[in-house]
């Protein structure tokens, strides 16, 4: 559920007409709804009241400071994968004691920074990383809290590029090897074992793979207990899918309730790392039609947003709804349109074969663009990245200015000789 609705044929973001936002801030423009972000966070948080838990929003999905700030104010934790994300969390008022640090390639300087601000936990993905964290902690005279990311080898039945919990993936430590890695961790003097984590993939639309992964983790937890290793938390990662088209994923509250039911009276702290299910449907990408090109085989609407602004369609062949911002104007041409950007690549499209009635100058909204949208934007073709606006009721705030050419070129130099 989101707060982007039509009123008399005009698309609104909460209480503001999207057309007016586009006119005020220009296009392409990312528009986020604070109420939607809050609602999605609460959908995880509420059912877990009464059980120790922490919702660590996956910063990679959308790392705008205002988005992080909305969540920090609700008491969210954060799942980070780089020092850059950590700096953003800190700048947004996030509590470092609620940060978990995932990712296969943590560098020494990143580990040091995370230790110096006192994060909650490192989600360790390999034996060499475990040893590295121990030695950095030793050099600083501190103890590093760690969890081992195990690979439960369950098939999340999602796109191969975003499934991460299979044996063939680069992530985590094989289930069967995990006890030995825990033993090694227990033997290292500057580590404190606090938990176990997994993340099996993204855009998962059924509960079964998550519950299968939980079963696997619980087997491991028991095994570790027998070996004298007592964990404090279970981190189930992120991955819950959203509705882009016809998908009907379980809601965050269904998911949270199912997990609580399985865990019963155990007092392990539960951690989730949702990204998409919090941010995706809290954002729109607004774009304007520049030209219409009706060809013999295809009708192209050339829009001012491109693959550099929203990469998912080009990269994963992802489908996102593209809807009109206003009722069709007199003379609009109804047809099936390929919505393509100005970037010089055949793969530069945001949607194909979309039935719309269009005229040049029309505004369109790409839905479900709040996650892995701006966060994956680039400057390809030297295009400035879009502006971002946060809507809160009838209030709106520019939360990132449109990038400028000066900003893009800052830091570059002509040759000195
Ligand atoms: N935790 C870890 C360790 C992750 O690797 C990820 C996402 C998450 C949490 C958050 O997963 P989510 O709840 O958002 O599914 N760019 C792709 C998605 C890549 C997801 C990578 N890992 C896309 O646009 O579909």
Automatic annotation (TrEMBL):
<dbReference type="InterPro" id="IPR022644">
    <property type="entry name" value="De-COase2_N"/>
</dbReference>
<feature type="binding site">
    <location>
        <position position="239"/>
    </location>
    <ligand>
        <name>pyridoxal 5'-phosphate</name>
    </ligand>
</feature>
<keyword id="KW-0663">Pyridoxal phosphate</keyword>
<feature type="domain" description="Orn/DAP/Arg decarboxylase 2 N-terminal">
    <location>
        <begin position="35"/>
        <end position="280"/>
    </location>
</feature>
<comment type="pathway">
    <text>Amino-acid biosynthesis; L-lysine biosynthesis via DAP pathway; L-lysine from DL-2,6-diaminopimelate: step 1/1.</text>
</comment>
<dbReference type="InterPro" id="IPR009006">
    <property type="entry name" value="Ala_racemase/Decarboxylase_C"/>
</dbReference>
<comment type="similarity">
    <text>Belongs to the Orn/Lys/Arg decarboxylase class-II family. LysA subfamily.</text>
</comment>
<dbReference type="InterPro" id="IPR000183">
    <property type="entry name" value="Orn/DAP/Arg_de-COase"/>
</dbReference>
<feature type="binding site">
    <location>
        <position position="345"/>
    </location>
    <ligand>
        <name>substrate</name>
    </ligand>
</feature>
<protein>
    <recommendedName>
        <fullName>Diaminopimelate decarboxylase</fullName>
        <ecNumber>4.1.1.20</ecNumber>
    </recommendedName>
</protein>
<dbReference type="Pfam" id="PF00278">
    <property type="entry name" value="Orn_DAP_Arg_deC"/>
</dbReference>
<feature type="modified residue" description="N6-(pyridoxal phosphate)lysine">
    <location>
        <position position="60"/>
    </location>
</feature>
<feature type="binding site">
    <location>
        <position position="372"/>
    </location>
    <ligand>
        <name>pyridoxal 5'-phosphate</name>
    </ligand>
</feature>
<feature type="binding site">
    <location>
        <position position="276"/>
    </location>
    <ligand>
        <name>substrate</name>
    </ligand>
</feature>
<dbReference type="InterPro" id="IPR022653">
    <property type="entry name" value="De-COase2_pyr-phos_BS"/>
</dbReference>
<keyword id="KW-0457">Lysine biosynthesis</keyword>
<dbReference type="InterPro" id="IPR022657">
    <property type="entry name" value="De-COase2_CS"/>
</dbReference>
<dbReference type="InterPro" id="IPR002986">
    <property type="entry name" value="DAP_deCOOHase_LysA"/>
</dbReference>
<feature type="binding site">
    <location>
        <begin position="273"/>
        <end position="276"/>
    </location>
    <ligand>
        <name>pyridoxal 5'-phosphate</name>
    </ligand>
</feature>
<keyword id="KW-0456">Lyase</keyword>
<comment type="subunit">
    <text>Homodimer.</text>
</comment>
<keyword id="KW-0210">Decarboxylase</keyword>
<feature type="binding site">
    <location>
        <position position="372"/>
    </location>
    <ligand>
        <name>substrate</name>
    </ligand>
</feature>
<feature type="binding site">
    <location>
        <position position="316"/>
    </location>
    <ligand>
        <name>substrate</name>
    </ligand>
</feature>
<keyword id="KW-0028">Amino-acid biosynthesis</keyword>
<dbReference type="InterPro" id="IPR029066">
    <property type="entry name" value="PLP-binding_barrel"/>
</dbReference>
<dbReference type="GO" id="GO:0008836">
    <property type="term" value="F:diaminopimelate decarboxylase activity"/>
</dbReference>
<feature type="binding site">
    <location>
        <position position="312"/>
    </location>
    <ligand>
        <name>substrate</name>
    </ligand>
</feature>
<dbReference type="InterPro" id="IPR022643">
    <property type="entry name" value="De-COase2_C"/>
</dbReference>
<dbReference type="Pfam" id="PF02784">
    <property type="entry name" value="Orn_Arg_deC_N"/>
</dbReference>
<feature type="domain" description="Orn/DAP/Arg decarboxylase 2 C-terminal">
    <location>
        <begin position="30"/>
        <end position="370"/>
    </location>
</feature>
<comment type="function">
    <text>Specifically catalyzes the decarboxylation of meso-diaminopimelate (meso-DAP) to L-lysine.</text>
</comment>
């Amino acid at each position: 559920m989101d707060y982007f609705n039509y009123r008399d044929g005009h698309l609104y973001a909460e209480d503001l007409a999207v057309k007016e936002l586009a006119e005020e801030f220009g296009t392409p423009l990312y528009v986020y709804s604070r109420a939607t972000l809050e609602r999605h966070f609460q959908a995880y948080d509420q059912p877990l009241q009464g059980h120790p838990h922490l919702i660590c929003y996956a910063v990679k999905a959308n790392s705008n400071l205002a988005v992080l700030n909305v969540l920090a104010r609700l008491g969210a934790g954060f799942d980070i994968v780089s020092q850059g994300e950590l700096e953003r969390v800190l700048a947004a008022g996030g509590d470092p004691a609620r940060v978990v640090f995932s990712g296969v390639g943590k560098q020494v300087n990143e580990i040091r920074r995370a230790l110096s601000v006192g994060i909650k936990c490192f989600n360790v993905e390999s034996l060499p990383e475990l040893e590295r964290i121990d030695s950095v902690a030793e050099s600083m005279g501190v103890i590093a809290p760690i969890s081992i990311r195990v690979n439960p080898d369950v098939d999340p039945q999602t796109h191969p590029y975003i499934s991460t919990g299979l044996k063939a993936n680069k992530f985590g430590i094989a289930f069967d090897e995990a006890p030995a890695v825990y033993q090694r961790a227990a033997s290292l003097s500057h580590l404190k074992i606090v938990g176990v984590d997994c993340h099996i993939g993204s855009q998962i639309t059924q509960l079964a793979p998550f519950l299968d992964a939980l079963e696997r983790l619980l087997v491991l937890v028991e095994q570790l207990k027998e070996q004298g290793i007592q964990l404090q938390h279970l981190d189930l990662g992120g991955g819950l899918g959203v509705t882009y088209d016809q998908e009907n994923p379980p809601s965050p509250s269904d998911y949270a309730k199912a997990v609580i039911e399985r865990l019963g009276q155990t007092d392990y702290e539960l951690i989730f790392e949702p990204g998409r299910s919090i941010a995706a449907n809290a954002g729109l990408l607004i774009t304007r039609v520049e030209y219409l090109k009706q060809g013999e085989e295809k009708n192209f609407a050339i829009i001012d947003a491109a693959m550099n602004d929203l990469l998912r369609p080009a990269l994963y062949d992802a489908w996102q709804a593209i809807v009109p911002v206003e009722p069709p104007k007199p003379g609009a041409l109804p047809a099936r349109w390929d919505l393509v950007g100005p970037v010089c690549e055949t793969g530069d499209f945001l949607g194909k074969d979309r039935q719309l009635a269009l005229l040049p100058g029309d505004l369109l909204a790409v839905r479900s663009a709040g996650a892995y949208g701006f966060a994956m934007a680039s400057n390809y073709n030297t295009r400035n990245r879009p502006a971002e606006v946060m809507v809160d009721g009838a209030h709106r705030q520019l939360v990132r200015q449109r990038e400028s050419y000066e900003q893009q070129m800052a830091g570059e130099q002509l040759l000195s000789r």
